[in-house]
């Protein structure tokens, strides 16, 4: 079975975070009160979109940028304010 490529794209939505998960022509959206909560919501959306597929690869993006997501997520996990996105 081939690996299912999945993207989870995050963006600020006022005080909240919005996330869109895309794979195989499907798209699911969620909104959460913080980046950590949005990441958990993305995990749930991945489970929904990839039901029955164990081979999958998820790339998390902040406004389309994987490095920016990693930096913001690690800052948030460490209890630091995420850097401003431009």
Please give a quick description of this structure.
With about 90 residues, the protein is an alpha+beta fold. About 30% of the residues lie in helices and about 35% in strands. It has one domain.
Rounded Rg: 13 Å
Morphology: globular
- Record the strand order, biggest sheet: 3-2-1-4
> What is the number of strand segments?
4
Query: Averaged pLDDT, please?
Result: 92
| Biggest sheet architecture | 4 strands, mixed
Q: What is the multimeric organization of the chains shown? A: single chain
Q: Quickly count the domains.
A: 1
Q: How big a fraction of the residues is strand?
A: 35-45%
SSE series: EEEHEH
Please report the number of helical segments: 2
Written overview of the protein:
It contains two helices and four strands. The protein has 86 residues and is an alpha+beta fold.
Itemize the secondary structure elements and their pairings:
Elements: E1 4-13, E2 16-23, E3 26-32, H1 35-49, E4 56-62, H2 66-77
Parallel strand pairs: 1-4
Antiparallel strand pairs: 1-2, 2-3
Task: Give the tags.
31% helix; 86 residues; alpha+beta
């Amino acid at each position: 079975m081939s690996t299912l490529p999945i993207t989870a794209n995050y963006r600020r939505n006022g005080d909240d975070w919005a996330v869109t998960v895309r794979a195989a022509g499907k798209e699911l959206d969620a909104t959460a009160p913080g980046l950590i909560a949005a990441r958990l919501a993305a995990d749930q959306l991945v489970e929904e979109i990839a039901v029955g597929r164990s081979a999958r690869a998820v790339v998390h993006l902040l406004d389309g940028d994987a490095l920016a997501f990693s930096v913001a997520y690690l800052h948030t996990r460490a209890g630091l304010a995420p850097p401003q996105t431009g």
